[in-house]
Amino acid sequence: MTTAFFFFLNQYRFDITQDSANFTLEVAYSWIRNPNAPPIEEIQKIANWLRPRVTSSGLLRGVGRFMIENTKLDEEGWESLLKPWIEITSKQIDLLSNEEIGHPTTVNGPSHQSKT
Q1: Per-residue model confidence as pLDDT tens digits over 79-104
Q2: Among 9, 20, 70, 86, which one has the highest count of C-beta atoms within 10 angstroms of its own C-beta?
């Protein structure tokens, strides 16, 4: 969810797929097994995994950027921008647990991920 939020703030969509949790654990275990590994190797692995799951939000990007830049993180800003995103994202993650393996759940908008 943190990764999805990062992409949301930067006006990208992140498709959380069924393998997301396992990939996250794999990265953590990799560092536990080999704490002296060059960080660039893990960064490349993470970037390669993220690349097909992240897309631009297209024409709405400018509107989203305006809203983010002009919304304070006070109670009103929380209610208008962040709280709805968290609720939508939480529901999508819940739905993911009910989906078959390999079907993406889109965070921040409709999915444009193609199946290969």
Answers
A1: 777 777 788 888 888 887 776 444 45
A2: 20
